[in-house]
Structure formats: structure tokens, C-alpha cells
Predict the structure.
Amino acid sequence: MKLYLALIIGLLSFMSCTKVIDVDLNEANKIVVIEANYTAEDSMVRVLVTQTANYFSNDPQPVLNNAIVSITDHLGNITSVPFASDGNYELTNYVPAFGSEYTLTVVHDETTYASTSIMNTPIAQLPIYYEFTEGFFGSKEGYLAFLSYNDPLESVVHIMAILSKNGKPKTKLNDLTLADDQLTNGNVIIRPLFAKIFDIGDTVGIELRTIDQNLYQYYLELQSLTDPSSAAPSNPDYQWTNNALGYFSAYSSSRQEVIIQ
Amino acid sequence: MKILFLSLFLFLSFTGNAQKFTLSGTIKDASNGEDIFGAVIKVKGLDNVGTLTNSYGFYSLTLDTGEYTIIYRSNGFLSQEIKFNLIENITKNIELTMPADVLQIQEMNVNAEKENDNITSSGMNVTRFDPKSIETIPVLFGEKDIMKTLQLTPGVKTAGEGNSGFFVRGGGADQNLILLDEAPVYNASHLLGFFSVFNSDAIKDVSLYKAGIPAEYGGRASSVMDVKMKDGNLKKFGASGGIGLISSRLAIEGPIVKEKGSFIVSGRRSYLDIFLKLSKDENQRNSKLYFYDFNAKANYKISDKDRIFLSGYFGRDKFGFSDQFGFDWGNATGTLRYNRIINSKLFSNTSFVYSNFDYQFTIGSGEDAFGIKSSIEDFSLKQDFTYYLNKNNTMKFGVSGMHHTFKPGALTGDNDSFNEIVLDSRYAMEFGAYIQNDQKIGARFNIMYGVRYSGFDLIGGKSYTYDDNGDKLTEETHDRWESSSYQFGIEPRLSMSYVISERNSIKLAYDRNYQYIHQLSNSTTSSPTDVWMPSSNNIKPQVADQIALGYYQNVKKNTYQISAEVYYKKLHNQIDYRNGANLLLNNLVEGELVYGNGTAYGLELMLQKKKGKLTGWISYTLSRSLRQFDDINEGRVFSARQDRIHDLSVVVMYKINKSLSLATTFVYYTGDAVTFPSGKYYVGGISIPYFTERNGYRMPDYHRMDVGLTWYMKESKRFKHNLNFSIYNLYARENAYTISFEDNSQTGETEAIQTALFKIIPSITYNFKLK
């Protein structure tokens, strides 16, 4: 759908016009936002607890420093995630058990927010493949990088791929590649990543994250929010009990790099 | 309700023993032999005695033995008065002529006092146009378009800037049954919605029913748009066409056998892609974007009582971006009809109808290419009868059966990364049976009442059940003709009028409509990829109940027509998506749906000037359209997107002199209801909008003025031509098409960005007619 709207506006670009306008938006009540990641790669749990702000506010995001954060493994062992700084809570050397479920709990202002996530096994990448392209939809010409890996036949896989150029990851929502293996189960996957076109001499990096289905769905919903043609955008389904915003993701990664020659 | 109908049927008057005879026949246009639909046949001196021609120009009127003067009349034609001594059944075929000169036009205006059919007819809420009457109205890119003209009438709202899609009385865009010679058209727009699929050269007449929908129609919840193609000139060959900036068209018509059979073929092709050649970008230059369509129709009179018609439409949109991406879609329809006048009172029509809509994507080229295809295909058989029981009662009854094939999607290709995937086809039989009577009671009261039975049998394929979260519970496979769910509805239809005087009347209508197939769209622009879904064990049919009341008045010898209508509509089993629904190639798409209800109500006012140098209308609609879903907006009532509270259209056509005609339109409406954020938060350092309510905000109000000037150049007996200049959006109002929120890449501040599609668009079209 996004493509369809892009077509309309793109093709009529010689007639259409855009401008910045004033829109009077309401001020919603402040809601707790929790962004929690448990990365297998460095065995770290990172949690950021903040609040919503007015839409046009340019102040730094309001952080919550007095929360109590803990993580529970599939055996029921509870480990505290200590406060670090500015709304950040961090736990180091927390070794993952692949295939098991973790629960993260945040208590703030006498309300408990909890969310679970499954730590999936990492998928090894094949070497990055790249190919010269003459530009696509008006983008410049250059090299397009392809993610490749063997999709495991026996399991349902959800991935998030993050492209980086010379060590700088492209983390904008629409630059993230999300995929499940509904159409590709058990195949050798060779998938172009369109977030960046490269030149000779650039270092291409790809981080392939194996995520769980909840997070995959959550990110799809986030991405659909950036589609201006959506008739009725709405908040992604709540990942936390007591309706905090944000998510908890336990994930594993594999990385590849190549220099374009 | 049943008792009411029963008693009304018992009301049918079988009075007296006086001998009765029937006057019947057909009414045609003398210039080309086209049937005239809706022509009036009246008995002079008797109030409320008369009838109308049906779609095939047939009429029948049964009267007591005696001498009568019959008036034959239709809009735009000179009326005829003929004396009959009715002592036996009489067949009289009439040809009405158009006024040839000023004298005759004056004569027509003198008779115009009688032109108050809008007051006296029982049918309410019908909007009728023939393409000729709107040819001077300015439109986007100069391509005259009957669907865009309908949007300028009360209760009909445009789907968006320059768009031919529409909403009727608060209903959804998929709730309009669009028929082209009885064949349903699933996607009635070309070129991203800016053109309708109806080539005005091929169209004879369009009727839009908003309420009191006759029982012969069924299948959509909100309205019926019945488009009739021209039959072709029975008398001589002719051609007409036009050359415009964006597209050109040509139609050829003529007799197959003079006075017995005729044909018309017409075609259209757009060439917007020429503009792409001006682009600096090579890929844009190599892109294609065009549409074409063909209409063809032939009819042949086998005998005085038998006639066959064959008509078809084929249209296609093609879009391609270099060799990397292709997207094309289109409709095909075909109708074969057989008319038989069984006797002077009974008219029969049998139709075989085909309709198909499909789209396909191709991505990549060569070995890596893959494609996605989807289609919906219908075959149907219909039998309709009109029975002219007596001078007070005209009955219609009939049955229909339609077979649907839904192919929701298939992914095919050589690309190794993708597994071929073909979604399960689904099949359904849709049935209808109806009976309706149009009855005159006394001199002032007309009532049309009927009932339609509709049934929908989903057969073959797989059926699923889901839990509350939309996750699959069970799956069952059915044989090709085995039923997996059967749903039906009883649809009462009623419309009545009371003529207060020759100048004013009141009308009341009630109807219930069932809709068994549903188009799912989650976007502000209609897209060919919006899927059609059948009702099933999970999806209940949509049902609409509407009651409408209207007051009509003509003033100054019918020069001005004033109408005021109010309506209240309940919509049941409305459909929407869950958040983040996966619609692409998903067999379990029913699990992604949620269900709710809707309410729509409004007041529609119209002032129309029908005669004189200056004609046109002012139309104003005050309305609301609300929805309530347990799973959306925390169960609270919210505005539908098309909940435009005020909607005003002004159309003015002015004949400056014999060769110049000026027309202007002005539209104003409340901005669409939209969802904007009421806060924000960050995920991965990216700001994410936080929403508190569905459609709680408004787009800026929309307004626009267009002007058009038509220059009728010197004509000869056989050749007529004109040039049409028009300007769309005269004062260059930047109407918001989308409003998006983005972080400014320089300052990092969040901004609201409005995109407007068109500023001023001038255009020029040359039209000709060879007779």
C-alpha cells in the first residue's frame, strides 16, 4: 500500500506540492514506555524506562530513574537489573539459554509491568553478496548488498536485518528488514537490503538478528505507522501488562562484513 | 413487516366487470432508434393514470374500453399526443423526436408545466443522468466522467481528490453495487482512481439509487449505480470521439440490419506516460502508465416480440517501472440478454452475465522474476418479469443465481528464494428471488413495495475457526460443491409518495440490504489490490437498514425543483482489520478481521434549475457516519473516515450564446476524519507517535472551484464538433491529500507535512460527432 501511494505521489510529483503546516494536537496523559533488550551476543540486559511526551515537544525524553527492574528465566530464577544512569538499567554476564523464555518485570509507582520473550538460536550468515544496480525508483546507482543464509527447515524463523556502512548501522524503522519464512521456509535466502546503496571502498556490515514472533509483529506494526496512506493508524498491540508502551526482546545475532571492490 | 406486505398485496385492485384492453409498445428516440428508459405514458385528463417505459423502452397500460388521449413524454424530447379508441388490444410503437429549432424549444417550454414527474413518481432518491446533460461540466484533465458528476449530488461523497470512487449516505466504498448492463464491476476506476471505467461515449444512462432500492437489485449495503450502455444507432452509421490531453476516445455505431439490429463499439486509451518522458530520471522515462478500455454492444430484433442484446466491456491499466516492476489490473464483463414480449401485459428478460476482475504484479526480470496474481470471477443467470396487471399495478418478479470464484492470491516464479504459494480458491453461489408491486391508490398515492430473498452458499475450499486473538483453532477441507456455510436474508423494500398538489409531494422509503462479499481496505486511497472476501462461517453478511423521508416542490412552472430528504441508516456486521494485520498471501486472513456496527444519518437539500439559459444546482448535505467496534478505539464510537459533516456542491451551466457555453463548479466539504498522534515516545532512538483515539482529528476543510468553457464550432448537417477548455482548481487551493509527521533531518524537530496533489490543472479536449 505504501508503494501504491508512493506511486501516486511520485508520478504526480510534477504537479503536487508539500509544505509544513501547523496542526493542533491534544496532550495525552503520560504513559510509561519500556524498551528492553536482552542480547545473546554480549550476554547483557539493557532496559530504558521513559514516558510519553507531547507530540511536538523538543525537550529530551522524560526518563524514569526510580523503577525496580528484574529478569526471570524459564526456571523461575529472578535476577535484578540494576540502575545505571538516565533511565537506563543494565545487567551484565547474564548467559542465555537458547530456546527458552525470559520474563522482564518493571515496577514503577506501584504498578508492575511485565513482558516475555523467547531467546532464539542465532542463524549463521553466508558471505555478503553484492551487485551493481542502475538505481531504483530514482535512487542513485551503486552497489546493492544481499543478505544470505540457509533458512532452517524445521523451525519457524523471524529475522531482523540491520545494514551498516563503514561501521554505522542504519537503524531507522524503514531501514530495518523484517522477514518471516512463511514463503521461504527451508530455502537458501538471498535478499537485497535496500536501506543503503554503496560505493567501491565502502565496508558493508549486516547484523542478522533472530527475534521472536511477538517482536516481529510489533515491528511490523511500528513500520505500518510510518505509512501515510494508512486510513487508521493505531498503537501497536501492547507488549507489556498494564499497557506500558515499548517492548521486551531477547534476541541473538550473527554478523558479516565485506569491503566493496 | 410480513403482515404489512400481505395486506398490501391483498389490496391489489381487481375492480369492476367493465371490459379492459391493453395498449402496449415501445418508445424510441427517432434520431437513432435507441430505447428510451423511463419515458412517461399518461392519459390526458385522468390524474395518476399512466406508466413508465422499462429499461428496454417497453410500456403497457390496461384501461377500460373507451376513447383516450395518450401523452408520450420524455425529458429532452417533444411530447406526442395520440388518440386511441380502445376497443381491442393495441400495440403502438412510438418514436419521440428532439426539438430541431428554437420554435420547437419554445413549444416544449410551454408544455413544460407538465414536467413534474419528480413530484408524481413513487421512486424516491434516484439520481439520473445521461452523459449529454453533463458534457459541459468541468472535470480533472478534461475527461468527462459520470461518476464524478454524481459526486456533486446530495448524499454522494467523493473518495478523495480527483477520485471517481464514492461513498453514499455514510456507507463504505465497497457498499455500492456498480452494474454495467447488469454485470457487476468490481473496480470501477482507472489510473489510480482519477478516471472511472465508464467511457461517456458508450453510456446511455446512469441511475443511482440511494434508498428505497427496488427489489430487483441486491448484493450491496448502501446503493446501486445502474449504468446502461448505448444500444447503437438503428438508422444510420455514425462516429463520435474526442482528443484530450490525457486520453482519446472513439465510438462507432450503426445498424446491422436497418431498424432491426444495431451495434456500437467504443475505445479509449490514455497517454499520461508521455509526461513521464519529460522526467529527468531515466527510470521514470522508461516507465509506463496507461489504461485502455473497450465497450461493445449489439442488439437484434428477431421478431416484434423477441430481441437479443450482447454487450461487453474490457479494460486494463498497465503500470511498469523500467523492467524491474510491473503492475496491471482490469475488469472484463459480458452480458447476453434475451427480451421477449410474452403478451401485451407480460415482459420477460433473461440475462447471462459474466464479470471478472484481476490484478497482477511482476517483480524483477529474467530468472529472478516472480509475480503475484489475484482475481474474482462471476457467472450469473437472471430471469426477470414485468407484469402490467392493470392500470394501477405493475409487478416485477424474478430469480437469479450467481457463481463466484475468488482467487485471493498466488505467488509464482523462478526466484529460488521464494516457494511458490497458491492461496486456496474459494467458491460461492449467491441467489436472489424477488417480487415487487408498483401500485397507484387513488389520484395522489403511489406505493412500491416488495421483498427480496437473498442467499449465499460458500462451497468448496477450506474453512477455519479462530480464537479471540485471531489464531487458528481448526481447519476443514470441503469438496468442490460441498457447502461450508449458508447465510440468507429477507430484504423488505418500500417506497411511497403522496402527491399534495401538482407542485409538491412527500415520499417515504424503507429498505434492508444484505451484502455477502466485502472489500477490505485499510488505506485512504482505493487500490486495485484491496481484496474481495466472501461471507463465511467467520464473516457475517453486512446488513443495512435505512429509512428516508423527503419533501419535493417545484416552483415557477417546474423551472426550479427543490428537495429535502432526511435519512437514518443502521449498518450491521461492518468489517475492519486488527492492528498490524497481514493481508498478503495469507490463507488465514479472516483471523485478522474484527467486526462492528455503524450508524449514518443526514439531511440533504437540493435546489435545481432545469430550464433557461442558466441551469444547474446547489446541493448541500449535513450528515454523520459513525462506527463502533469492540476491538477498536477501546469500544468507543468513532467517526468513519467519510464522516464529512458539511458537503456543498454548486454547479452552474450558462449558455452564453449558440456557440459558447460556460460551466463552473464549486465544492466544499468538511475534512475527513483522521487519526493523528496525541503524544510520542522513542523506540531505538526513533520517535513513535502515540495515539489516543481512532479518527479523532480532521483533515483541513476541502474546497475547490473549476471552470469550463465549451465552444460549439460551426456544424454541418452531418458533422458536429466542439472544443472544451477547463481549469481544475481555479484558485490553486492546496487541498491536503495526506498529512504526515516527520522529524526534520536538519533540526531534529517533529513537523507536520501536508501533501497536495494538484494545483491548477488546465486542460483542453476536442470532441466530434459524425452522423
In short: Chain B has six helices and 51 strands. Chain B has a mean pLDDT of 86.
